[in-house]
């Protein structure tokens, strides 16, 4: 019996106790544990799928509003021009309604432009907005809607809408004369200043307030808009010879300041170029 046990140890066999011990540990050696995030109590969760309507493309909506605003400005502006140029009677207030709808269309287009560029909830400070020509036009549309009708007031919006629509539709006949149309806008603003001055002298419908507001915006355009600044410089050069003839020292002193300003601005533009 003892010899048999000895032979078993020599032949490498194991006893009953060792055999149970090996069988208990062999599964762990064959399949080591792998880490998992699941807990013993994890259960499968069934999630319900719910259809959600896709949000509309905001950029597409802004573009449609921008395009529709310019179209309204051209269509209703044309109707208003016909009534005002040919002195037609304002039957059923067609002229008044068309005039204000044209301005409203321009306001929608300008608002869409600002919304696309900045976002209505992230607008820059008011000082920065005032330097933008589009914002100036937007403020003026509101003022022009509640004041007297004039071709000079509505013409810049009409021409700007024509230029934008021509660019979208690629109308070469209009785009080739874009610089000429822009100069028409600049000269129209000068005529509007003269017209408001005359109405202010005759105390017509709060024209003085409109003149003051427009002069503030026009001066900002002289400072920040290249085309308006060049036109202002050309006007100053043409008037220089006439202003020298005036012997009033106060007028001469103020005119000298204007000429100095134009000279400095031209030098700045040359440096930028």
Automatic annotation (TrEMBL):
Compartment annotation: Membrane
GO cellular component, one term: membrane
Pfam name, any one: TMEM33_Pom33
Keywords: Membrane, Transmembrane, Transmembrane helix
Record-level GO BP terms: endoplasmic reticulum tubular network organization; membrane organization
UniProt biased composition (Polar residues): 1-39
Disordered, as annotated region: 1-48
Transmembrane intervals: 65-89, 101-123, 135-160, 181-202, 208-224
Key word Phosphoprotein present: no
UniProt keyword tRNA processing present: no
Topology within the bilayer: Multi-pass membrane protein
Family affiliation: Belongs to the PER33/POM33 family.
Name assigned to this protein: Uncharacterized protein
Protein source organism: Candida theae
